[in-house]
């Protein structure tokens, strides 16, 4: 990009610099063409002590595999730190560092800046190194939102922020976060004698927040561990496209959602098939829905009732019929009223929101 | 006082320059000379002029670094913290509530062994909003493993910044270091400063090398895994060991600084002014020394044998040396530009530390009086110093004095 300014005093074009954005090459990771082409090497291995069938741990494994060995990973406080990386038994086969709960954005920026300047000054071998900072929903959608937002405005640092979303502050014993679903029973929102629904806020729509707010960010997407190959390939794309990128992953949590671990994978699928968790990527400003979400949007697949998803989880066991209906109506709204169905919550006409009495 | 004369032959060899600059500009120039890799900025007065100077140095092509304006101090310090662990030499800073906003990052940095060098432009903490100097901002990290130093003029600011990188990045140390500069009195006051040549600085300051602690794909390590009760005590003990070594490393670096640049600071930890024959002394940190010196000279004309000790390093606190120095006098007055509400004797932070050092390290224990003075940027006047000196002389005569007094207070 050519940056020319007009020097009024001198009355002539004055070329001050040749680029706005000093892009560095990435590793250009090609998509894995099928499950059989996925390498056997693991960079997230044994040593962690997460719950059985923890899907948050699953995305750690997929993320590390997708990124490969020339990668630095920062892990924000949360289950994927505390339950994951114990002194003397780290599961990480790539360099890894704990970062503070709200520091995924600032941490990734610091690492990318350090690599870039040292390579420029010849103090470090010049090569593309993946920088990934992961955080939970509490770390990313609540506490660290401002830092992530700032980082997504820095076009010249290559990095990925991956937010795994188990829909609660899980590590501290399951408390509501900005992404907990409406009505969920958590240790800060237990139903009581007078109030059945203690958590009456709707889940933050995080990926579109990143899309709409950061016009120079080249890649924002949602993934699910129930579609592992696609998840890995989207991570590879986010790492290859250049600049800062953001991925939001939904991760069923047997402990926090209160379900039999055998259902982890199925709940991930149900979240998509009920239309609760839409799968899409926004690449250079272009939105692609993918998987079952695309079929839902095209009318090729009829959304399953949210009841099928909600009633498999103990965190919704206190729901009465009204609550289920309300939940369903809000999901219907996403698909029938939103300007970009399932993604952007702008409506042509505002309709009254009428939740049931708590 | 720093001696600013160099042997002529040395001067010729090194093409040192002289310039009229502020304390903040002196530190910006030191960052350039130190070839700092990553700088993060966020606006808050009065420290932030250093970032204005650095931004200009970058824009003019005089300094090559990643210059990042963060969205808040928490990120500002987190960015350099991570950059430092990836091998970059870093600089940042703050003032007052900005420093407190970064507190989480400040807390974790010593145990992570991050040699970040920061400038604190000391400022009163809100509320009420005030721009003037108070030392409680920087002092808030005094128990956490930071190295803390107070400088009193622009030359010392520049020199200390270079010394700071050598000390902090020394493999025996690897801890964060804050250089405190009194807001306005130093950050914004100009003085003639000798700026050393780049080649000389290169010789004094080797590239930062994190060795096997570097976060890089060629060195697959996990930094700061969850430890819990199994190991936390041992890890804390490592930071304790750093503080045990700190004084000798600092002494070594000052000696080398003197050899390289020809400017010798003598005892790195504190500076004595007219103490040789003094009966009583005042002790304080930072720029108040200018007024105290004037007052001391005036009082000496009246035959009052008073001296002054300016504390340069608060962490490490050179306890035994300070005790040995102060035991010679009949009474000591400590001027605190800070408060420590509810502390023993309700004294300021420095007075409390001095008393603690004297209790164990001194063979005789003269009375140590605490003065709280010059808060929120209020001037410490010559008259204030005279008043404090008179009180200390009374104590020296054996007349009991309150252990803490507020000086220069209305009403
Ligand atoms: C500044 C700060 N406040 C609070 C905590 C306590 N804390 C530790 S882990 C955690 C939960 C984080 O939740 P999330 O980011 O969603 O990750 P999860 O545990 O769900 O994986 C909290 C609140 C902390 N570590 N740091
Ligand atoms: S509480 Fe949830 S996120 Fe945490 S380890 Fe268990 S299953 Fe995983
Ligand atoms: Mg969570």
Topology:
The complex is a heterodimer of chains A (about 350) and B (about 400).
Chain A: E1 3-7, E2 12-17, H1 55-67, E3 71-76, H2 79-82, E4 96-99, H3 104-120, E5 130-136, H4 137-143, H5 145-151, E6 159-165, H6 206-213, E7 219-224, H7 228-240, E8 244-250, H8 254-258, H9 264-273, E9 280-283, E10 286-289, H10 291-298, H11 306-310, H12 321-336, E11 338-340, E12 344-347
Parallel strand pairs in A: 3-4, 3-5, 5-6, 6-8, 7-8
Antiparallel strand pairs in A: 1-2, 7-9, 9-10, 11-12
Helix pairs in contact in A: 1-7, 3-5
Chain B: H1 8-14, E1 17-22, H2 23-33, E2 38-41, H3 49-59, E3 66-69, H4 73-85, E4 90-94, H5 96-101, H6 103-112, E5 117-122, H7 136-139, E6 147-150, H8 154-169, E7 177-182, E8 190-195, H9 198-204, E9 222-223, H10 232-261, E10 270-273, E11 280-285, H11 289-301, E12 306-311, E13 313-315, H12 319-326, E14 331-336, H13 349-361, E15 368-373, H14 382-396, E16 404-407
Parallel strand pairs in B: 2-3, 2-4, 4-5, 5-7, 6-7, 11-12, 11-14, 14-15, 15-16
Antiparallel strand pairs in B: 1-8, 6-13, 10-12
Helix pairs in contact in B: 2-3, 2-8, 4-6, 8-10, 9-10, 11-14, 12-13
Magnesium ion binds near residues 138, 169 and 170 of chain A.
